[in-house]
Write a structure and sequence with these properties.
The chain is of the alpha+beta class. It contains five helices and 14 strands. The protein is elongated, with a radius of gyration of 23 Å. The two termini are 43 Å apart.
Length: 240
């Protein structure tokens, strides 16, 4: 609308600081409100780096210059979680990592309204150091649920509302590998079950371990547990 009249009927291209400055300033204000300890340069970096849409200055021109569009949701989310990462108790854990953490993701795995925070680092040897956290609203701090060294990075299953990661286990008879599944209950990571394969038995059979009790299962059953497991999409972790 323009002066109360319906003239465009949708989105349109506008130019000038009189329309752009209030939008950008408003997003900057929201970012600063989320973390008042940020400097002006840090606010600018967060706003500029957390965009997901690129628009052309003149859509009708093939040679028009393109710009990133500000995204208030992504920028504020970054500010909130960078504040958690910077000021909460996670750092005593990451100081012991082989490699510096480089990426993070925010997921509400168990859909309880409290998002989980996954911090990840791929080591020089090709393995992953992964930290799984949640936010305790009563204590107002991030709780580290699990710090795990694994070979594929943490993934999640939408069907079972679980986190999973690949690991190698060793017995007297030799090594075997598989997927460890965890559920989240009351801000804690609870071991749910381990589904894996044994190098010493037939390829047609896998096994499942629940509460320490092992049972052999068909490969098709293993595939059912694992078929909807997805890789987590990470964002770069900066200013750590």
């Amino acid at each position: 609308t323009f002066w109360g009249f319906e003239v465009f009927g949708g989105y349109s291209s506008q130019s000038g600081t009189s329309m752009a400055a209030p939008i950008v300033s408003g997003v900057c204000g929201m970012v600063w409100a989320a973390d008042s300890k940020l400097t002006g340069a840090q606010v600018k970096e967060i706003v500029c780096n957390n965009t997901d849409t690129i628009v052309a200055a003149s859509p009708e021109s093939a040679s028009s210059q393109s710009y990133n569009m500000v995204n208030a949701h992504l920028a504020v989310q970054e500010a909130v979680y960078m504040d958690y990462l910077r000021s909460k108790e996670y750092k005593s854990y990451t100081d012991e990592w082989y490699e510096k953490p480089v990426e993070y993701s925010i997921l509400d795995i168990n859909q309880d309204g409290i998002p989980e925070l996954i911090i990840n680092s791929k080591t020089s040897m090709g393995w992953f150091n992964t930290m799984m956290c949640t936010y305790d609203t009563q204590k107002d701090k991030v709780i580290v649920m699990k710090d795990v060294y694994n070979w594929s990075g943490v993934r999640y299953s939408e069907r079972f509302k679980t986190l999973t990661y690949s690991e190698m286990r060793y017995t007297v008879a030799g090594g075997f590998g598989g997927q460890q599944f965890y559920t989240i209950e009351n801000n804690k990571l609870k071991e749910s079950y381990f589904v894996g394969y044994d190098f010493n038995v037939s390829d047609d059979y896998y096994f499942i371990s629940i509460n320490g009790n092992d049972d052999r299962i068909l490969k098709s059953t293993y595939d059912f547990y694992y078929e909807d497991v997805k890789h987590i999409e990470y964002e770069p972790l900066s200013d750590i």
